[in-house]
Amino acid sequence: MKKFLSILTLTLLSAVFFYSCEESTTDQAPVIEDEISQAVLDQLTSAGYSTQDVITTTWNGQTGYVVEYDLFFSEEDILNLEKNPKVPGTEQYHTTNLVTNLPRVIKVGIDPSFSASAVTALNNTIAMYNAENLDLSLQLTSVTITGKGKKQTINTDADIYISAFRERPRRGFITLGIAAGFPTASGDPADGFGLNTYWIDNFGPSVDEIKGVMAHEIGHTIGFRHTDYQTRESCGSNQNEGSAGVGAIYIPGTPTGSDVTSLMQACGPADSFNGNDVVALNYLYKN
User: What are phi and psi of 61, to 5 degrees?
Assistant: First the structure.
């Protein structure tokens, strides 16, 4: 996900946050220009992903790339991307694979190193999803970590695990969250996402702002694409994310115009569902 601060916002010292997976910032961390090979860019392009602002990173012990501001692909994932054409469509979309075997409880766990505000944000995120009375509900589950480094063991029964990573700003943006992807072909949610502790520790986001990032990334893990995937207009750009190898299927009943308050906008200030998000959730996960 992305957090963006305008010059006016900085001047007024006002906290207006825009979520996707990164944040424009005046933080004085050194600028890092990532060298991305043409072969990697070609693989992403052929699969329908945007190659704008691709960055290299290490997450959960794997070296890879953050694409479209909140999707992580390891080196191996890049090699195995399927070729897909760009597809047309309008507004709210879901991936080809969705979570199945409904009704179903999805257990969510969080790395115990996170601050109390992040845990509170997760509880609020879970409550927000469950308030919709879907056939898919979320439940907090415990996480313990033993050992250190390569001998570290994560003990949890979480279906979606929120891990910690620490990354300073670069090229004027800071990554807030990175998703492990979308639902699997077997009907399970993606196994989790990462949340940037540097952002939490140094930028002091509110509980609602952290909740916004978490809810957005959970949306991806259960099958939601960005509502403005065709243009990424909420990020100030005009680039089609394409099918991205996972599909972009229009959800009936959602608007065909801009939906700037949707939680699933690529970059937007939302920290709760708007009416169209609720329509989309009900369409996919409520009988």
Answer: 80, 5
d(CA 38, CA 258): 33
SS3 sequence, 209-228? HHHHHHHHHHHHHCCECCCC
Cα Rg of the chain (Å, integer): 18
Cα–Cα–Cα angle for 42, 170, 178, nearest 5°?
65
The secondary structure of residue 150, as a DSSP letter, is G
Instruction: Please list, residue by residue across 240-262, b when 16 or more beta carbons sit within 10 angstroms of its beta carbon and e when fewer do.
Output: bbbbbbbbbbebeebeeeebebb
Tokens for 210, please give them: 């952290």
| DSSP-derived 3-state class of residue 220 | helix
Tens of pLDDT, residues 208-240: 999 999 999 999 899 887 776 554 555 655 444
Q: Got the DSSP string for 100-117?
A: -SSSEEEEEEE-TTS-HH
Question: DSSP code of 99?
Answer: -
- Give the pLDDT mean for 138-145: 96
Query: Is pTM, for the whole model, over 0.90?
Result: no
